[in-house]
TrEMBL record:
Residues noted as binding FAD in the record, renumbered to the chain: 340, 371-374, 403-406, 581
Role of this protein: NADPH-dependent reductase which is a central component of the cytosolic iron-sulfur (Fe-S) protein assembly (CIA) machinery. Transfers electrons from NADPH via its FAD and FMN prosthetic groups to the [2Fe-2S] cluster of DRE2, another key component of the CIA machinery. In turn, this reduced cluster provides electrons for assembly of cytosolic iron-sulfur cluster proteins. Positively controls H(2)O(2)-induced cell death.
Source taxon at top rank: Eukaryota
Originating gene: TAH18
Record protein name field: NADPH-dependent diflavin oxidoreductase 1
GO process terms (BP): cellular response to oxidative stress; iron-sulfur cluster assembly; nitric oxide biosynthetic process; positive regulation of nitric oxide biosynthetic process
Reactions it catalyzes: 2 oxidized [2Fe-2S]-[protein] + NADPH = 2 reduced [2Fe-2S]-[protein] + NADP(+) + H(+)
């Protein structure tokens, strides 16, 4: 067996992937040859036949859940028939990314690490559980973990010598416009079998024109749709044509070849697959995320493409190089994160001395990832509905920022084509032999999956009791549910909370919940009610959970600790579900 280092990552928002990409680059500069892959995409046989050192980086999402791109891997290693010494040849280290304000802090990496050790893995360097809530942030944890890892690898690979930092590494994915072997290369660019095509039916604003937030009721028509309440849709967005043109204009050598057939040798795996008849312009438009904030791994490669022959060029190269290391993390934060500067703006800013070779575009630019939205319509085989908040805001430098996906959605008109896929959830709203009451807490666009669930239950014409606690700012501006249920239903009970209306009975969903503590306590403790909490992550989910604990405490006259344990038991039993983003 040849010595092989494998880096696997599970990432929902891109943070774990970024650390994995950065580590991969660092190890390549040590003259090692690591393999980088999503957990679910890596051929598991390779762990047995072609891996000696395994590095896993994984975030935790929701209530201790694994990212979507790591669940197949976890399902495989949990198989009971696997021998206990399956991975005895592997040396293992893991890095978890989490938030200590959540009960199941870094639960995903703990589960993965524990199971791999059960299957025989030996320690390479200590496991690290990074906490984004800590003073040093995840970067501080990563640095310490990386230092320990590299020290261990240097012992195992004493002949690994570092490569001069001025030397540019060869690209991993060779991109060219040469026409030869075009057929063969395109055979590799297969579209995912899960991908579906649809047509925009409507794209209507459902908040008033004078409200700061543009929220859309977005409907897509397709065929053979199969979904249930709680399922999600992944949309595959595209960059705006003007942004694509701006990037091409910043790199004059690209303009000449922008519309010629493009070939990619050993293309990276991408969710949804590459679009057919690929050109450089199409690659940028549909697959390269040029609107996201540039990260450290981006700058690690970018500075190599600056011409330092002039004083300005040398200064710019040094500046970009500083962004690529951890010596002063504030430099990168102040340049990129604080003003929410985009990759496109960065390239344009340095365009006078920056020449990016086309064959490095897939190494340099991150790929566009599909954006997930909860389905708002009741199950249908021909149509689905989403409730989408358009992301648009001003930064500290007074520039308007727009989210890639929602900006794209805002531009879509009836008849436009969209690519999407549907993901199933464990959103079980009834028991095998009963239909318990459902308590739903859903501020803002968190109401989308609740609308789907309510629509389904009402269409079944059962007596299942539904309690919706909806929150927004103003009754007359962003009361999204105002038109959802034009008629009243005896089993649908709605509690509205308007945080900016002076005469509103309730300001926040927590206020309404606690005011109804007797009803809620009875439903939870005596009627076996299920609880669903959906909406923005941050304070809301935590405060709602604390409110439910207070309700249980007051209703049952028990201690804080007993009430909190009871809520945890509801989570463990699937009666308390949280979906925050």
């Amino acid at each position: 067996m040849s010595d092989q280092i494998t880096i696997l990552y599970g990432s929902e928002t891109g943070n774990a992937e970024e650390y994995a990409r950065y580590l991969h680059y660092r190890l390549r500069r040590m003259n090692l040859k690591p393999t980088l892959s999503q957990l679910d995409e890596y051929p598991l046989k390779q762990l047995i036949t072609n891996t000696t050192h395994l590095i896993v980086i994984c975030s935790t999402t929701g209530q201790g859940e694994l990212p979507r791109n790591s669940k197949k891997f976890m399902k495989f290693i949990l198989k009971k028939k696997l021998p206990y010494d399956l991975f005895q040849h592997l040396r293992l280290t893991t890095l978890g990314l989490g938030d200590s304000s959540y009960t199941k802090f870094n639960y995903a990496i703990r589960k993965i690490h524990a199971r791999l050790v059960q299957l025989g893995c030996q320690e390479l360097s200590p496991r690290c559980e990074a906490d984004e809530m800590s003073a040093e942030g995840t970067d501080g944890y990563y640095q310490e973990w990386e230092n320990q890892l590299i020290e261990a690898l240097q012992k195992d690979f004493p002949k690994a010598t570092g490569i001069n930092e001025d030397l540019l590494l060869m690209p991993q994915y060779k991109v060219s416009t040469k026409a030869q072997s075009l057929e063969q290369d395109f055979a590799q660019l297969k579209v995912s079998p899960d991908l579906q095509a649809g047509t925009v039916v409507s794209n209507d604003r459902i908040t008033t024109p004078d409200h700061f937030q543009d929220v859309r009721d977005f409907r897509i028509k397709s065929t053979d749709l199969d979904y249930l309440p709680g399922d999600t849709v992944s949309l595959y967005p595209a960059n705006m044509d003007e942004d694509v043109e701006a990037l091409l204009q910043s790199q004059p050598t690209w303009l000449k070849i922008a519309d010629k057939p493009l070939t990619i040798s050993s293309p990276p795996k991408i969710e949804g697959g590459f679009i057919p008849n690929l050109t450089l312009r199409k690659l940028i438009k549909y697959h390269l995320d040029i609107i996201s904030i540039p990260r450290r791994s981006f700058f690690s490669l970018l500075w190599h493409f600056v011409d330092p022959s002039t004083e300005d060029g040398q200064r710019e190269q040094e500046k970009l190089q500083e962004f690529s290391n951890f010596e002063d993390p504030e430099l990168l934060y102040d340049y990129a994160n604080r003003p929410r500067r985009s990759i496109l703006e960065t390239v344009v800013e340095f365009e006078n001395n920056l020449t990016i070779p086309v064959n490095y575009v897939l190494d340099l630019f991150p790929l566009i990832k599909p954006r997930m939205f909860s389905i708002a319509s009741k199950p249908s085989s021909t149509e689905l509905e989403l409730v989408v908040a358009i992301v648009e805001y001003k930064t500290i430098i007074r520039r308007i920022r727009r989210g890639l996906c929602t900006r794209w959605i805002k531009s879509l008109k009836p008849g436009d084509l969209v690519r999407f896929s549907i993901q199933k959830s464990s959103f079980n709203y009834r028991n095998e032999n009963s239909a318990p009451p459902i308590i739903m807490v859903a501020p803002g666009t968190g109401v989308a999956p609740m609308k789907s669930l309510i629509g389904q239950v009402l269409s079944e014409q059962t007596n299942q009791e539904l309690y919706l606690f909806f929150g927004c700012r103003f009754k007359d501006k962003d009361h999204l549910i105002d038109t959802f249920w034009p008629e009243s239903y005896p089993n649908l009970h709605i509690f509205n909370c308007f945080s900016r209306d002076k005469d509103s009975k309730y300001k926040y969903v927590q206020d309404a919940l606690f005011d109804q503590y007797k009803l809620m306590g009875d439903l939870i403790l005596n009627e076996n009610a299920k609880i669903f909490v959906c909406g923005s992550s941050g304070k809301m989910p935590r405060e709602v959970k604390l409110t439910f604990a207070e309700i249980v405490k007051k209703y049952s006259n028990i201690s804080d600790e007993e009430a909190q344990r009871y809520i945890i038991s509801l989570e463990d039993n699937g009666r308390y579900k949280e979906d925050a983003w």
